[in-house]
Design brief:
Oligomer: single chain
Helix content: 10-25%
Order of helices and strands: EHEEEEHEHHEEEE
Number of helices: 4
CATH topology: Pnp Oxidase, Chain A
Radius of gyration: 15 Å
CATH superfamily: Electron Transport, Fmn-binding Protein, Chain A
Number of domains: 1
Structural class: alpha+beta
Distance between the termini: 13 Å
Amino acid sequence: MERVFIEMKPDDIGHNPFKLIGVDWMLITAGTKGSYNTMTGAWGSLGVMWDRRVAMCVIRPNRYTYQFMERSENFSLSFFEEEYRDALTYCGTHSGRDVNKAAAIRLTPVFGEDTIYFVEARLVIECRKIYFQDITPANFLSPDIDGFYPKKDYHRMYIGEIIRCLSR
């Protein structure tokens, strides 16, 4: 079966972002054809910032994908059907330092002009980084948030302008 993507406007995504990100999860991918990495993300958002359609994701500095995000101008968020849950779990529990994740889980990378995503995805959001901010514990207004950071490895937040959406 050929898997064809249809380009759509960000306003037409039509998915509940709480389910899409927090329940279904996503693969965050950055890098180049010669060197890239992907990781599972379950924290982030979709919305409007500075009159632009944006996606936000967070990555801890100790994650291998962090260095790819730092070097890249763009990144992608790939969302999958439930049948890929094991693949997403694998990408969240194994490091690209140690294994070629895409090969291990049998996902097919697509090397676009500026981003990398996966043929098997049901929705792809391509983004151009426009802002980053390190999470600062001094700014937590709810003290229980610090409980998510027992190792004090606070995330870096990336906001990306959505440059293209692909759907099936």
